[in-house]
Amino acid sequence: MVSNRFDQSFSESPFPDGRWGRSDSKLAGPLKAFAATSIGSRTIRALVPVDTKILMKSNGRFTVLGPFGLPLLLLTTIGRTSGLERTTPLVYLPIGEALTVVGSNFGQERHPAWALNLASTPKATVSIKGGVFSVAATELDGEARQEVFEAFVTMAKTYDAYRHRTNREIKVFSLRLLED
Asked: Which of 10, 85, 87, 116 is the most exposed place for a label (fewest CB within 10 A)?
């Protein structure tokens, strides 16, 4: 089961709880262990395009990755070179009034495009369980970055495997609601 702090953070968040399934289900543990392996990461990476289509068509209401019991959102950024909208499903954690996301890219050597897009244009939208929210992104560093990353490791040990698989510093972002 995910820590009490994680559960409390959902009650403090202005965003909906986007968890699918249950983190203490019989499937969650073995699926997370599989996801931490190289072949598991490749399998999930291969499912991302299908999952993105399902999430987009359902406005963030349905996902094929539900048995993991992890909170999912759709992040829409502006492409740093194309200027076009790009949408990516991501696991997130609410911390206080912000959402946090990690640019693990399954432990690959390059940063995910969405993270580079956010660094270039920090305004984005997130869709969670049918709700769409405008957000402003801030890249975290130092102790704040480390604390959030460790919260992700607590939620899913997969993130520990990702950080050991790459030599780059994995980007971590805080997403806050934009005032209209």
From this structure: 85
